[in-house]
Amino acid sequence: MFYQAQARFNKNADDPEAAWRFGLACFDWADLAESNSRRAEIAEQGIAACRQALKRDPKLVPAHYYLGLNLGELARTKKIGALKLVEEMEGEFKAAIALDPKFDYAGPHRSLGLLYASAPGWPASIGNRSKARLHLRKAVELSPDYPDNWLSLLETYLKWGDKAAVQSQLASTQEMLQRAQKQLTGEAWEASWQDWQRRWEQIKTKTAEPTPKLESPRHKR
Question: What is the DSSP letter of 3?
Answer without folding.
Answer: H
